[in-house]
Design brief:
There is one protein chain. This protein is α/β, with parallel strands linked by helices. It folds into 2 domains: 9-109 and 435-477, Roll (Urease, subunit C, domain 1), CATH 2.30.40; 111-422, Metal-dependent hydrolases (TIM Barrel), CATH 3.20.20.140. The protein has helices at residues 40-49, 132-146, 151-167, 187-193, 210-219, 222-226, 254-261, 275-283, 287-294, 300-309, 312-315, 336-344, 353-358, 361-364, 370-376, 392-398, 402-413, 418-422, 424-429, 461-467; strands at 9-20, 23-26, 29-37, 76-86, 98-109, 111-116, 170-177, 198-205, 240-246, 267-271, 326-330, 348-351, 379-382, 447-452, 472-477. The protein has a 6-stranded mixed barrel with strand order 1-3-4-15-14-5. Strands 6-7-8-9 form a 4-stranded parallel β-sheet. Strand 7 (170-177), helix 4 and strand 8 form a beta-alpha-beta unit. The chain is globular. Bound molecules: zinc ion.
Length: 482
């Protein structure tokens, strides 16, 4: 029996299995944790979120805590280190230890949601309306008309989005900090930096035609974009990094795309999403052309640039193979040679399955090539996109859940390597240590979740996780060493 330091709290978790990116670690499983007090900054981040925070770590077991009376509903906020993990018969149960039993759940590390727009959370889910050919246009109109524009409203939306992430067991995000009235803004960055979430805040910018010229004028030329200072506030946790989001292939010109590629910053860009985007590059026509014309950004030079590129992927060619984290968002519409190019470059694609279905892309563009991309050597991650494109029932039950995205694919298409896409690979892609997303003795996972399976003793815990429909419970929130 190991000797445990008396000044710390011990927490023993017991569940149907423990799983991380490597698969099933033990089934059934017990996990013994050492809990130490959270830093003041970490506790403040939780308190400011309006999440119920217990006075933890507890120094003695509460009267209600015992093996038969689990503690429910509130995560332990503190620095947690795994002391032991294995079959329950092999994991000690020291005197005074707290216990949480989840016999019909699996234990998991905290998850990554690789593509979010948390500043759109307050708009909430919308039912898809109208014919498929009009969905994208109506969506753009809705976002422009309803997105928050004041710092207070943006902050409230981000805090709501952060709560929806934590409800889903998500501890890190690749979040797009939206432009406000078409201009880059730091309001969403400031708000995200005050939450417990890590990851990357990508400051969005638009730059097409006359808009590209205006951006360069403001900055002092394309080279100035390459020297964009990281603009996170001083209170930002170390686990949150600053990035740029050249918005999309149809809203950022070639020079600005190249300038973004030349920065050392993490980048996220929307690519090859819709049939409208394909039409724009193939013939300089269609709804996106009309839209750009209506907002005064369509010129003969812009048309020539689209026709020269011919395909959306050509617009982001300077971004393929960058050393810094680079996320290609959506990539619904790729040819076989394009898939081979992205695979050879070991590019990172973020697929948002429910958003793609909301827009009808499986019907209009075809099935997403995520399995072909994986086979070609690309990395594929999962994102929820914004709350707008999710079913209200899913959002209410599970928050902004990348696990729900994986379950949709697993149940529609059969098994696939979903765990690394939610854990290790996603962490690496946004610049966080994969060790914070593993369960092993000596490690300090950013969080530990219990995912409800609705059954005890599953024959295959991984399959049970992805075929279940239950929610996740955040048991421990440790953060990234803050
Ligand atoms: Zn997006």
């Amino acid at each position: 029996m190991p000797i445990f330091p008396p000044s710390t709290s011990l927490l023993r978790l017991h569940a149907a299995a423990a799983i991380d990116a490597r698969g099933v670690l033990a089934a059934p499983a017990a996990l013994l944790l050492q809990l130490r007090p959270a830093s003041p900054a970490w506790r403040t981040a939780w308190n400011d979120l309006g999440w119920p925070v217990p006075p933890v770590p507890p120094v003695s077991p509460p009267a209600t805590a015992s093996a038969s009376q689990p503690i429910v509903g509130r995560p332990f906020i503190g620095l947690a280190t795994i002391l032991a993990l294995g079959h329950p018969s092999q994991v000690p149960s020291p005197p005074g230890c707290l216990h949480i039993h989840r016999p019909a759940a699996v234990l998991l590390p905290g998850l990554v949601n690789a593509h979010t727009h948390l500043d759109l959370s307050a708009i909430g889910p919308l039912a898809p309306q109208g014919p498929l050919s009009e969905r994208f246009g109506r969506f753009v109109h809705t976002v422009v008309a309803n997105r928050p524009t004041t710092p207070a409203d943006i902050s409230a939306a981000i805090r709501l989005g952060a709560r929806l992430c934590l409800q889903a067991g998500v501890v890190a995000v690749g979040d797009i900090a939206g432009a406000v009235a078409g201009r880059p803004s730091t309001d969403a960055l400031d708000a995200l930096a005050a939450t417990p979430l890590g990851g990357v805040a990508f400051r969005e910018f638009f730059a097409i035609g006359p808009g590209q010229a205006r951006l360069f004028e403001q900055l002092g030329g394309p080279a100035a974009l390459a020297h964009s200072p990281p603009l996170l506030p001083a209170h930002a946790p170390a686990a949150l990094r600053f990035g740029l989001s050249p918005h999309a292939t149809y809203s950022v010109g070639p020079q600005a795309m190249q300038a973004a590629a030349d920065t050392p910053l993490p980048l996220a860009v929307h690519i090859a999403e819709s049939p409208e985007e394909r039409r724009l590059f193939a013939g300089a026509e269609g709804p996106l052309q009309s839209f750009l014309e209506r907002i005064g950004l369509w010129t003969p030079a812009v048309a020539a640039e689209f026709l020269a590129d011919r395909r959306p992927l050509a617009r982001v060619r300077p971004l393929v193979g960058r050393a810094a984290p680079t996320l290609f968002i959506h990539a619904n519409d790729l040819t076989e040679p394009e898939i081979a190019t992205l695979g050879a470059a070991r590019a990172t694609i973020v697929y948002c399955p429910r958003a793609a279905r909301w827009f009808g892309y499986p019907q209009t563009v075809g099935p997403h090539p995520y399995r072909a991309l994986l086979a070609a050597g690309a990395r594929v991650l999962l994102g929820t996109d914004s709350a707008i494109n999710l079913p209200q029932a899913d959002l209410t039950a599970h928050g902004l859940s990348p696990l729900d995205e994986a379950r949709l694919l697993w149940q529609a298409d059969g098994p696939f390597p979903a765990l690394p896409m939610l854990l290790d690979h996603a962490a690496e892609a946004i610049g966080l240590p994969p060790a914070n997303f593993r369960l092993e003795p000596g490690s300090a996972p950013a969080a530990i979740l219990a995912a409800d399976l609705g059954q005890t003793e599953p024959a295959d815990p991984v399959s049970a996780l992805f075929t279940a429909s239950g929610g996740v419970e955040l048991l421990v929130s440790s953060g990234f060493g803050e």
